[in-house]
């Protein structure tokens, strides 16, 4: 077959895929008779019964000399690791606000960090396309820095996101600008599985965020510049379980809902969305009404759910932090930093 | 909007003990004066260390190299390394041997495949048809060039490559190299095949012959950096610079560019000889247009509002020769170009035209509040070490002047 024939066939196949995708979308719209908020209101649910003093800032942790890009808590929620543009990881005692460790990273361009379940290690990754692991119990060197205990190499693009697998201290999942996610064995430094990339059904653009299901650590979801989120089973690397469409821009952040049956996303299109993991339906859109044109819509950079899932915290590029009532899709509270979150 | 409650977020000073409203997380309510004093000492030590490191870093100026692929920016990076550091050590030089070999295979493959394609599609196709007895060599070399790991370059293969290179069809293809992705240093590779195929060939220790290393195209993933001081080692007499090259990231720049917010300067490399060439990733897109779009995009990024811009109009040596053969107006951006004469005058005229285009682009895309950021244009040929050294001295002067202005001393 000649090159131009192949090209024509490719164009035809792409058109076919797009048509099928549109039809699928239409079918979904037909089946979706209401969204979460519509249903909740029809059932008479009312706004959350807290008062404004129930949400207060209890700690401000100061010490970084640059933007804070990422942070993670230990499972006991008593310690925090944070990564910053100043090229450092800082470990904090969350209760006392004291710093327990400060690590000057070999590569200053860090984008993500994660605490190991046992609380003894932290991982970070960034523009160096590697994920570095530090053991907090190792001896510090002359400059007071912890040595790197392991480096996970193999990604061909920046590491945007990393998370230790909950019940296994030896496993870590990373998301990368090379469009893949990887499951690593931290003790050997080997890649156990690669999700996407050469294998079909992977993301078609940079992976920006991952979130492991708290109820079933074999499942994780990834968000990407291709405006989709994808669900993966770590035991099946060959294809994504499901792809979630709906956003109109980069999906910057994904987080599983506490019950593990659905997950939230935040995007460059300024909205957060709630997706049902099994059916793939978009359950709810959390969007600020904008009177002026689209160019001014702040993008969603980061989200988190409260323990019950009733509250969705969303950080925006203009420094605002909104707390959404996930059930009623209304903004419940508002606060902010001085700059981008 | 119904149900909204505006909650200002007050700051709690560290010495205050946790309040009731914090809920179950803080059940271990330890009054701070009972906290282990070791922890206090450790935390204070950390704070001290951070403060000291930050103070040292204030004297380091960060420079970010940006540019489209093939803009010559990685060569500039290597040049700076050669100029201000001790150059490459032998182990590293040796590691470049296989890179050079791989480049040779890739180059001849591009030429051979290119000749075949031109023979199929061009009207005057006969001149691109390779001689029958060279076809077998061509097919073999094309296959080798497509492999991930290239074999070593032996004398035998080097001879075969030389034979193919001398085929008139290949020569013809080379001179029409702009529509293919023929690397600029193709000729250099082909003319030095014998040397490259020596058994003990190491891109050599002699400084002059480090040209080999400069010519080799190496793909990096991640970010490379070098720290240097232009005026000798002494930090007192000169500024300390850290140059970053985010080389091999083939992904969405917008997702990591903000990491570089607040760098002292962006060094943007534009290969002005590329006005008639297409992209490697998309052969319908003109490289100069791509560079133009990229420059526009970089200028608009709020993270560089305070950074100086140094524009390197690179590959001038190739531009010089090309301008006579290929008119500037084949590139859409330069379509209003009127050639003036010939010879050296014409080259200068063409260069000034291109420079003006970039200047206009800069001012069109800089917001009013960026008016006092420094903007300088330099004519460079990345492979010319003396020129790079001179250019960098000028860059250093500009930045030092900038520093003094900002400190209110000028």
UniProtKB/TrEMBL annotation, chain A:
WD repeats: 61-102, 152-194, 200-242, 244-285
Gene3D superfamilies in UniProt: YVTN repeat-like/Quinoprotein amine dehydrogenase (2.130.10.10)
Entry keyword annotation includes Metal-binding: no
Pfam families linked: WD40_Gbeta
Matches recorded under SMART domains: WD40
Coiled-coil segments: none
UniProt keyword list: Repeat, Transducer, WD repeat
GO cellular component term of the entry, any: plasma membrane
GO biological process, one term: signal transduction
Keyword Acyltransferase: no
UniProt record similarity statement: Belongs to the WD repeat G protein beta family.
Name of the protein in its database record: Guanine nucleotide-binding protein subunit beta
From TrEMBL, chain B:
Localization terms from the record: Cell membrane
GO CC term (a single one): cytoplasm
Keywords: Cell membrane, GTP-binding, Hydrolase, Lipoprotein, Magnesium, Membrane, Metal-binding, Myristate, Nucleotide-binding, Palmitate, Transducer
One of the protein's GO biological processes: adenylate cyclase-modulating G protein-coupled receptor signaling pathway
One Pfam family this sequence matches: G-alpha
Residues that bind GTP: 70-75, 214-220, 245-249, 314-317, 382
Region of interest called Disordered, as start-end residue ranges on this chain: 1-25
Binding site for Mg(2+): 74, 220
Gene Ontology MF: a single term: G-protein beta/gamma-subunit complex binding
Entry-linked Gene3D superfamilies: GI Alpha 1, domain 2-like, P-loop containing nucleotide triphosphate hydrolases
InterPro entries for this protein: Gprotein_alpha_su, GproteinA_insert, P-loop_NTPase, Plant_Gprotein_alpha
Compositional bias of kind Polar residues: 13-25
Comment, domains: The helical domain is required for self-activation.
Stated role: Guanine nucleotide-binding proteins (G proteins) are involved as modulators or transducers in various transmembrane signaling systems.
Entry similarity comment: Belongs to the G-alpha family.
Oligomeric and partner information: G proteins are composed of 3 units; alpha, beta and gamma. The alpha chain contains the guanine nucleotide binding site.
Protein name: Guanine nucleotide-binding protein alpha subunit
Origin species: Musa troglodytarum (fe'i banana)
């Amino acid at each position: 077959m000649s090159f131009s024939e192949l090209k024509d066939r490719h164009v035809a196949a792409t058109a076919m895929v797009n048509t099928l995708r549109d039809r699928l979308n239409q079918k979904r719209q037909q089946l979706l008779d209401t969204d979460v908020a519509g249903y909740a209101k029809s059932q008479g649910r009312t706004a959350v019964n807290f008062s404004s003093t129930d949400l207060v800032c209890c700690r401000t942790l100061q010490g970084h000399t640059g933007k804070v890009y990422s942070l993670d808590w230990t499972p006991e929620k008593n310690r925090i690791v944070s990564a910053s543009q100043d090229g450092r990881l800082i470990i904090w005692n969350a209760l006392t606000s004291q710093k327990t460790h400060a690590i000057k990273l070999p590569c200053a361009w860090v984008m993500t960090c994660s605490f190991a379940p046992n609380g003894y290690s932290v991982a970070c990754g960034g523009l160096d396309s590697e994920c570095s692991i530090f053991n907090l119990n190792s001896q510090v060197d002359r400059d007071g820095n912890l040595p790197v205990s392991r480096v996970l190499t193999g990604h061909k693009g920046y590491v945007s996101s990393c998370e230790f697998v909950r019940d296994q201290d030896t496993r870590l999942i990373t998301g990368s600008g090379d469009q893949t996610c990887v499951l690593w064995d931290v003790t050997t430094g080997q890649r156990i599985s690669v999700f996407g990339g050469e294998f079909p059904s992977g993301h078609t653009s940079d992976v920006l965020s991952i979130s492991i299901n708290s109820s079933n650590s074999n499942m994780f979801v990834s968000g990407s510049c291709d405006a989709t989120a994808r669900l993966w089973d770590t035991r099946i690397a060959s294809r994504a379980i499901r792809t979630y469409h709906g956003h109109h821009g980069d999906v910057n952040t994904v987080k599983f809902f506490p019950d593990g049956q659905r997950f939230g996303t935040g995007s460059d299109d300024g909205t957060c969305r709630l997706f049902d993991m099994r059916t793939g339906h978009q359950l709810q859109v959390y969007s600020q009404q904008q009177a002026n044109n689209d160019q001014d819509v702040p993008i969603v950079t980061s989200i988190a759910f409260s323990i019950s899932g009733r509250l969705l915290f969303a950080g925006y590029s203009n420094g605002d932090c909104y707390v959404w009532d996930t059930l009623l899709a209304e903004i419940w509270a508002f606060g902010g930093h001085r700059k981008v979150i | 909007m119904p149900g909204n409650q505006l909650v200002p977020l007050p700051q709690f000073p560290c010495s205050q003990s946790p309040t009731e409203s914090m809920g179950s997380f803080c059940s271990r309510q330890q009054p701070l004066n009972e906290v282990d004093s070791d922890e206090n000492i450790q935390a204070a030590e950390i704070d001290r260390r951070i403060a000291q490191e930050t103070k040292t870093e204030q004297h380091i100026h960060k420079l970010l190299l940006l540019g489209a692929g093939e803009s010559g920016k990685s060569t500039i990076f290597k040049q700076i390394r050669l100029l201000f550091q001790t150059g490459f050590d032998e182990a590293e030089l040796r590691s470049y041997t296989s890179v050079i070999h791989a480049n040779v295979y890739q180059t001849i493959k591009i030429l051979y495949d290119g000749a075949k394609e031109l023979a199929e599609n061009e009207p005057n196709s006969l001149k691109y048809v390779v001689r029958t007895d060279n076809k077998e060599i061509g097919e073999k070399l094309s296959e080798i060039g497509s492999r991930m790991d290239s074999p070593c370059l032996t004398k035998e293969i080097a001879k075969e490559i030389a034979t193919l290179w001398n085929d008139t069809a290949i020569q013809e293809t080379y001179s029409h190299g702009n529509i293919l992705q023929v690397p600029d240093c193709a000729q250099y590779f082909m003319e030095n095949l014998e040397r490259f195929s020596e058994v003990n060939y190491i891109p050599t220790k002699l400084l002059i012959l480090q040209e080999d290393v400069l010519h080799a195209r190496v793909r990096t993933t991640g970010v490379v950096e070098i720290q240097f001081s232009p005026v000798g080692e002494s930090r007192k007499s000169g500024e300390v610079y850290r140059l970053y090259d985010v080389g091999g990231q083939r992904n969405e720049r917008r997702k990591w560019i903000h990491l570089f917010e607040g760098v002292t300067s962006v060094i943007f490399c534009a290969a002005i000889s590329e006005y008639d060439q297409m992209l490697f990733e998309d052969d319908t897109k003109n490289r100069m247009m791509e560079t133009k779009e990229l420059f526009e995009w970089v200028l608009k990024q709020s993270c560089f509002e305070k950074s100086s811009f140094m524009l390197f109009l690179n590959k001038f040596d190739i531009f010089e020769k090309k301008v006579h053969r290929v008119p500037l107006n084949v590139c859409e951006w330069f379509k209003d170009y009127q050639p003036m004469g010939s010879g050296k005058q014409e080259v200068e005229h063409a260069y000034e035209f291109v420079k003006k285009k970039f200047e206009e682009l800069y001012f069109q895309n800089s917001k009013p509040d960026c008016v006092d950021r420094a903007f300088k244009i330099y004519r460079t040929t990345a492979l010319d070490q003396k020129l790079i050294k001179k250019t960098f001295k000028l860059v250093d002067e500009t930045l030092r002047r900038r520093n003094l202005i900002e400190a209110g001393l000028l």
